[in-house]
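Progress report, Aim 2. The chain analyzed during this reporting quarter is listed below.
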Amino acid sequence: MEQIEQDQDYNIGPKENIPENPFLARGCCRAPKDLQRGEQVFDHGCCKLDAYDWLKDITIATGQRRFDCVEVRFKNNRKDFFRLPPDLDLYIGDIIAVEASPGHDIGVVSLTGEVVKYQMFKRRIDPDSPDLKKVYRKSRLTDIEKWISAVMKEDEALHRTRKVASELNLKMKINDIEFQGDETKAIFYYTADDRVDFREMIKLLAEQFRVRIEMRQIGVRQEASRLGGIGSCGRELCCSTWLTSFESVTTNAARVQQLSLNPQKLAGQCGKLKCCLNYEYASYVDALQNFPDSSINLKTKKGDAIHQKSDIFKKAMWYAYSNDQQNLMMMDASKVAEIIEMNKNGMIPYNFEDLAIKQEAKIEEQVINPDDLRRIDS
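Predicted structure tokens for the chain:
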């Protein structure tokens, strides 16, 4: 029965031709069918754009007006805030028509009330700004029908646009297309390494789709968040599930955490350094403050010792003699601090072997040809 209802919703015929529900990207469990019945299609789920209204059970004080802005969700990671007219009350899940340039757009209310004020403060948006766009009305039946028609065009338009870009030999990748709710405008998201002259493509697309075309370039991280995927950890990509803002990641984060500077291991599916390198970076920096300076060589009568590596979890540091760097000796970080202090006072211990907790031989890394099948034997 559920499959039959889905066929009726999209009017697409046989079971094997059923596409994925395009309204999932807008937070809806399915396409709206009966507006007169007032059914809710907005679905709170595991999504990075979903927010819990922790102020919903708190009543407004007497004489205080309800906050006159709402949070509205559109496709994928696009959300915006709009000002309510004084005579309109909206609730979470309402499908509304909002101001756009040009015309109007259709979105789903994701938050209302006082919690919207905190969301705007988080995104550094002034609630009293005169530039804040307005909510026009609750969507009429004709608005809903036109919105569904626009959404169902996106998948076909994406394939046709990629074909046009390929025929024009444009070095760009079309990632996503979002049609405006009134079918007067379409936003084309793309990635490109260099500057692209797509004026000819815009003319062809405008003739085919009969809408206003807006090309919007995004970065490779935003591309990965839109496409999704499985990371090397075996979980869904953070950028496509919960990460809402991107912070710069540097190789210094890998060095502080004692990670191998291997680009193949440190790069994510976007080709950039993995965002998760920043997750524990602050903890490592805080822990390293209790370690002595690793750039100071330790002096003994047997020779100077040079720092090789540190184990933050064991609070240990590894040293080796400058003339014999193959033999590593592990020492407690506090013991290293004592030896540095002894050297400053002119006291030089005889050797490190008596002070070391553990000794081991350094293993040289062997570079193996990845095309050699015999590498598995070794």
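The longest helix spans residues 141-167. The chain has ten helices and 13 strands. These observations will guide the mutagenesis work planned for the next reporting period.
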